[in-house]
Amino acid sequence: MNCFTETAEGTILNVRAQPRSSRAGLDGVVGDAVKVRIRSAPVDGKANKELVETLADAFGLPKSRVVFKSGETSKLKRVLLAGIPASAVAARIGL
After folding, report:
1. Exposed e or buried b for every residue in 8-31, given b needs 16+ CB within 10 A?
2. Residue-level pLDDT at 1
3. What 3-state class would DSSP assign to 94?
4. Are 9 and 85 in contact (CB under 8 A)?
5. 48-70 CB burial, b ≥16 within 10 A, e <16
6. Domain ranges for the chain
7. CA-CA distance, 18 to 33, in Å (whole number)?
8. 3-state secondary structure (DSSP) of residue 58
9. Taking 90 as the threshold, does the pLDDT of residue 35 lie above it?
10. How far is CA 16 from CA 8, 12, 83, in A?
């Protein structure tokens, strides 16, 4: 599974966002991305803000260390988890 890539900065995670969900959190791997459920609708950046909060909570990071690399206006996003090794990401998402 190629849902993340380790870099010198940390790990870049491929994310498939599912807005308007009944609950927030990680929901397994779908294809080559990690599915992340968020409650907010994709309006005025609210879904992206909640996505950052959800990923920060899931990986034990401050929100400032969760950085969009691409896809801010798409359901498919690439997000940098700064300072987290790929092995920790794999363990957290169950790979």
Report:
1. eebbbbbbbbbbeeeebebeebee
2. 54
3. coil
4. no
5. bebbbebbbebbebeeebbeeee
6. 4-93
7. 12
8. helix
9. yes
10. 23, 13, 21
pTM listed for this prediction: 0.90
Check whether domain 4-93 has CATH 3.30.450.20, yes or no: no
List pLDDT tens digits, range 9-20: 999 999 999 999
How many contiguous H segments (helices) and E segments (strands) does the chain have?
A: 2, 6
Give the model confidence (pLDDT) of 69-79 as tens digits: 999 999 899 99
Radius of gyration in angstroms for the set of CA atoms belonging to the chain, rounded to a whole number:
12
CA 46 – CA 82 distance, rounded (Å): 22
- The rounded distance, in Å, linking the Cα atoms of 18 and 37 is 5
- What are the tens digits of pLDDT across the range 48-68? 999 999 999 999 999 999 999
CA 56 to chain centre: 8
Helices (H), 1-95: 46-59, 86-93
